[in-house]
Write a structure and sequence with these properties.
The relative contact order is 0.10. The chain has 462 residues and is α+β, with helices and mostly antiparallel strands. The strands form four sheets. Strands 11, 14, 15, 16, 17, 18, 19, 20, 21 and 22 form a ten-stranded antiparallel sheet that branches. The protein has a five-stranded antiparallel sheet with strand order 1-2-3-4-5, covered by helices on one side. It has a five-stranded antiparallel sheet with strand order 6-7-8-9-10, sandwiched between helices. It folds into three domains: 122 residues, Nuclear Transport Factor 2, Chain: A (Roll), CATH 3.10.450.350; 132 residues, Nuclear Transport Factor 2, Chain: A, CATH 3.10.450.350; 115 residues, Glucose Permease (Domain IIA), CATH 2.70.70.10. The longest helix is centred in the first third of the chain and has 31 residues. The protein is globular. Strand 17 and strand 18 form a beta hairpin.
Length: 462
């Protein structure tokens, strides 16, 4: 039957979708393809982020560079070894005031039972070697080098403690067996000098000169009262160092003492250090020790300065009352001066927080600590370890918020002038000091500053 409009009506057997229906059908097909494509893409991206079975995550290069003291592992000259295998990590530093075998291991090893066993085992070997009472809770001399190696779960692998170059002790676990022993070495020292230009960080500059990170750490320690190598060193600054290279069984085995050093920088001016009777003095014979350290960390980088800033978490402009030092979690934090702890505990956005009132009237404050080692009312010494760097409280990453307060007013820690309240070389020893200084500057290929050279000549004439 022909419709009134003259067009033939399709029967069910000859059905063809009208144009709108065809468009809808193709639209549904396209949406289905997009959904399936998106599923495949994101499933593959997610799978790419999953660890491969049996693989071990690499230690970030920047954490190895900073280390724990850094955490910087001491390297022999020219040592460019890769990160430790199997995700293990070596924490290397020097002992601070009040450190013991137990405290060093307990700070870095997750299993307290193994901490006690290792500490007791090492202590027994040290006691036998020294021939005097010594246990895991005996105070160690500040400045002794040590290292602790743990696996990726924080379990103990090995440890080394160097009481002095001739007394180096080791502990190691192999096949679940703990072994401790004293290293047998024949030591020799040779005096050498190196001169380098600053390019990048102090550590990078020393490595470029063909030396190891241990020398950079020692150099930073010598000038810790006068130079903040993070904020004050500039590209092109010059440093000359006279040092002892240590040999064990005729093989290079790290460094002995820095005998003399001279640093000339755009911001720092001329700084010098001469080792004399176990202490460091400048070229005039004035002791380098001051009543405040330049910073509470050994290896640092300033991530946020004093003054107005846009808060990275609260997203508002506000005054920053301190200086943020970026460092790896677990980096030791020192008291910048002697004093009494007025607060140690949790403080709102600062997390684990320590405040110390100093004899000079200043108060120093340390925020976001991973762990604290002092209590309210405790007397602390300069460079005593009071905690570890962390990211407790409001923080986007591990760092130390360091503040200085004078007369209830916050001051810029980087702008405070360090005062030397200690001593100079005693008058009866000045002639000997100038002679030693002249000899060591000559060995470095440098000359004493004019004023000091005149003083040395006048002393010799008398």
């Amino acid at each position: 039957m022909t419709p009134r409009n003259g067009k033939m009506k399709l029967t069910d057997s000859s059905f063809r979708p009208r144009k709108p229906a065809r468009r809808l059908l193709w639209g549904l097909i396209a949406v289905g393809c997009c959904v399936m494509g998106g599923y495949l893409y994101f499933s593959q991206s997610f799978a790419a982020q999953l660890p491969i079975a049996g693989s071990i995550p690499r230690v970030p290069a920047d954490s190895l560079d900073q280390g724990r003291t850094c955490g910087v592992s001491a390297q022999a000259p020219g040592d460019k070894s890769s990160p430790l295998a199997n995700g293990s990590q070596e924490i290397a530093d020097v002992t601070g005031q009040g450190d013991t075998l137990f405290s060093l291991l307990n700070d870095n090893v997750s299993d307290e039972n193994s901490v006690r066993k290792v500490a007791d085992s090492l202590a027994a070997v040290i006691q036998a070697s020294k021939g005097q009472a010594f246990d895991c809770d005996t105070d160690l001399n500040p400045g002794s080098r040590y290292s602790v190696t743990v696996d990726r779960d924080g379990k103990f692998l090995k440890a080394t403690l160097e009481l002095d170059p001739a007394n180096v002790f080791h502990a190691s676990v192999q096949d679940d067996v703990l072994r401790s022993w004293k290293e047998d070495v024949v030591l020799d020292f040779k005096t050498e000098a190196v001169c380098f230009k600053v390019v990048g960080t102090l550590t990078e500059s020393v490595l470029r000169a063909g030396e190891g990170t241990e020398l950079a750490l020692k150099l930073s320690n010598v000038f810790r009262y006068d130079i903040d190598f993070q904020s004050e060193s500039c590209r092109g600054d010059t440093c000359t160092v006279l040092f002892e290279r240590r040999y064990a069984d005729d093989r290079p085995s790290g460094y002995g003492q820095i005998l003399c050093a001279a640093y000339e920088g755009k911001k720092t001016g001329k700084k010098s250090a001469v080792l004399f009777n176990t202490e460091y003095y400048d070229e005039k014979g004035v002791e380098l020790k001051k009543n405040f350290l330049r910073s509470p960390l050994s290896v640092i980088r300033v991530t946020s300065r004093f003054g107005q800033r846009f808060h990275p978490v609260l997203r508002v402009w506000r005054k920053h009352n301190g200086v943020d030092y970026g460092a790896a979690t677990g980096t030791p934090v020192w008291s910048v001066a002697g004093g009494v702890v007025t607060f140690s505990g949790w403080q709102n956005g600062y997390g684990n927080y320590v405040c110390i009132k100093h004899d000079s009237g200043y108060e120093s404050r340390y925020g976001h600590l991973h762990r604290t080692f002092v209590k309210k009312g405790q007397r602390v010494k300069q460079r005593q370890r009071i905690g570890l760097v962390g990211m407790t409280g409001i923080a986007t990453g591990p760092h130390l918020d360091f503040q200085l307060v004078a007369g209830k007013k916050h001051v810029n820690p980087l702008g405070v002038k360090m005062v030397n309240t200690l001593r100079s070389v005693p008058d009866p020893l000045k002639e000997r000091f100038y002679s030693v200084a002249q000899e060591r500057f000559t060995a470095m290929g440098a000359s004493l500053p004019t004023r000091t050279a005149r003083a040395a000549t006048a002393t010799e004439a008398n």
